[in-house]
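#lab-general

N.A. 3:47 PM
ok so I finally got the sequence cleaned up, no stray characters, all 250 residues accounted for. can someone with queue access submit it? mine expired

B.Y. 3:52 PM
send it over

N.A. 3:53 PM
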Amino acid sequence: MESKDLVSIITACYNSENYISETINSVFNQTYQNWELLMVDDCSTDSTKSLIEEFQKTEKRIKLFQLNENSGAAVARNKAIKESKGTFIAFLDSDDNWLPKKLERQLEFMISNNYNLTHTAYELIDHQGNSLNKTIVPAKILGYKDMLYSNKIGCLTAIYNQRKIGKKYMPLLRKRQDYALWLKILKTGEKAYGLAEVLSQYRNTENSISDNKLNLIKWNWKLLREVENLSFIKSVYYLSCNIIFKFLKR
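B.Y. 4:20 PM
back already:
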């Protein structure tokens, strides 16, 4: 690929000692090497921070920031976005992995088609890294209204071109902030384009945010009503669609 644009990888960390080394190594193993990894520790109480600092001793492309108090993923990710210098902004959570050609293939897809927001297929793995034999395949094209029905973009797969659309920050929700970000971008008239190639691994763990379905319903409602400012009737409708979609995915 001709492009050598810098990619800023955004990783929020909280008590991720069991997986953080594997996550960082999946970035090291990328075939596309012009990246910076911005990691924000959200006051972990385990050895997450010290493990990252060990990697920093031999890798200058890792930049570690420490929040003063536990503030949630939105604040942590926004700190990294603010400090980023890349043309492209990519997201990788601290318990997920990228396959080696993730950046190379996705940037090629974006640049050759002049796309500003893209996402890809990904597979589910268990806490030990074993495949759960389930793949999430992205929609080819998504607009704002399409995304109101459910969040169809895996955060670990998303990349946007900040040179074209500017730096976009996550609304300050404790949960569903990535969903809110995609809606914010799409609301401007942008589209999200899906690459149907498995390039990432999403780890299903007992502590995953998505495990608490009832809590997610509350945050989806908050997103629709307070961030998107939808009417009560529309919010009920789209929340119902979100719930149905969750059941269909099982």
